[in-house]
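Render this sequence as a predicted structure.
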Amino acid sequence: MAQSIEEIKESLEAPTNRIVNGVQVDLTSEEADAILNEWAENERAKQLDEEANGYKYNRAAEYPSIPDQLDDIYHNGIDAWKATIKVTKDKYPKP
């Protein structure tokens, strides 16, 4: 489950400076808070995306390559191919 913005912010270290035209400049507390909020929001969006779509990435990593799948269909038929693919689909179900 995705963390709250506050939980994420607690795990991050607030920035203290930035580089402007090659010179290091200290950030005001408002600037540091704004950057920290942006980082936390980006991390939360990433976590939510992983929850919603993680199964897609996991499936894609485990499926055989397209040429191997086509070869499987040619030599063993659609039903055998479906059985091969079903193992991965069952391992990583849609949420």
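Summary. The chain has a mean pLDDT of 95. The chain has four helices and two strands.
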